[in-house]
Amino acid sequence: MDYHLRCRAIPAMEYQSSRFSLIRLIFMAIEFSLVIVTMSLLCCAYPERFRKTLWEIGGQNGWNSNPRLRIYFYANYQQPPEIPLVWTQRLSESNLAISVLATTVCSVRIALNYFNLTPGFSRLFSAMNDMLLSGFWMYSVTAQSSSDLTDPDHLSVRPWYLEKSCSLLDESLVEVCVLAKAGFALSVLSL
Length: 191
Hints:
By secondary structure, this protein is mostly helical. The protein has helices at residues 12-44, 48-60, 70-75, 89-114, 122-144, 160-163, 171-190. The protein is elongated, with a radius of gyration of 24 Å.
């Protein structure tokens, strides 16, 4: 038996389909990279000491309220003002939860595409997931850029690390500032 290599022309529809798959694959790779990097950064920013350090730096420099002044409220048997959302552990937890959800959704999309199991309603499903994740990321960006108005002498419309340069800080604190800026930037990109 002789085997002969035959060249056949690729029909236009098949060529367009493969080109579409390549473009979709590239976008999925970019999306997966973005969600993994975002989740990694937000995991680093998760501990309470991270937000507390940012709050203390701003308070010491007069850029926002000072968390150490809360002791005076307790000493004088007064109710201290509520902790601003931008400095709460709840914000760190919600940011991390949003990034984990985005990573899970992205992983499911990749798995469905890899096994060619995309159902007929996949575009509707993807659109609904994208709208839901966009809403969560909008909340995250809004909360990360929220104000600290608890100290009338040091009002802060936005967190100091979004308005000031990290080079103003000591070398030991620059990493915290850069991590906060990067986490915010990646949250904006994830929108």
